[in-house]
Amino acid sequence: MVSGTADVVNGQITFAVRFARGTLDHRTTRVTIEVDVDRNQSTGRQTGVGLGIDYVIDLWAGSGAANIMQAVAGTCTVNSPCYTSVGNAPLRIGDDEMRTTMPLSAIGSADGRVAFRLMAYTSPQNAPGPTVTSDYMPDRNLPPAVIK
């Protein structure tokens, strides 16, 4: 990933992820955006890096949509997912960019003041889940990005 941004305008939030030229594979590239809507690391799914994940937004080039999922407290086990799907948003894919826009209400935010982190990886169409994460933004050991 070259850049990852979040912009809030008129009750909508837009996430945009730009990749190095030629690295966005329209069949397999996947990005997970972890969002902390209350900016409280003790709520949602704790990460240990200053982020309490309340929602994740799954951008999968192969699906053509952004899947919005909410964290479900106490459900993270080997056989049970940590998130439940609560909606979708359009996903626009360019040569080197993935972009999605959704109402703030889709992620439980009233004002757009959120913390977030991006993870990029490949996920073939028939794979049961993601492969190894290839990039984090901000880097994995750094605090999340924040919209104030």
Summed up:
This protein is mainly beta.
Fold and architecture overview:
The protein has 148 residues and is an all-beta fold. Helix content is 0%, strand content 47%. It has strands at 3-9, 12-18, 29-36, 45-46, 52-53, 55-60, 65-71, 83-93, 97-103, 115-122, 135-137, 145-146. The strands form 2 sheets. Strands 1, 2, 3, 6, 7, 8, 9, 10, 11 and 12 form a 10-stranded antiparallel sheet that branches. The relative contact order is 0.26.
What is the topology?
Blueprint: E1 3-9, E2 12-18, E3 29-36, E4 45-46, E5 52-53, E6 55-60, E7 65-71, E8 83-93, E9 97-103, E10 115-122, E11 135-137, E12 145-146
Antiparallel strand pairs: 1-2, 2-9, 3-6, 3-10, 4-5, 6-7, 7-8, 8-9, 10-11, 10-12
Oligomer: single chain
- Low-pLDDT runs of 5+ residues are none
Q: At the first level of CATH, what is the class?
A: Mainly Beta
Percent of residues in beta strands: over 45%
- By CATH, the topology is Immunoglobulin-like
Q: Measured on Cα atoms, how large is the radius of gyration? A: 14 Å
The overall pLDDT, averaged over residues, is 87
Shape from CA axes? globular
- How many strands appear in the DSSP assignment? 12
N-to-C series of helices and strands: EEEEEEEEEEEE
User: Based on helices, strands and strand pairing, what is the structural class?
Assistant: mainly beta
Cα distance, first to last residue? 23 Å
Number of domains: 1
Q: Helix segment count? A: 0
How does CATH name the architecture? Answer: Sandwich
Fraction of residues in helix: under 10%
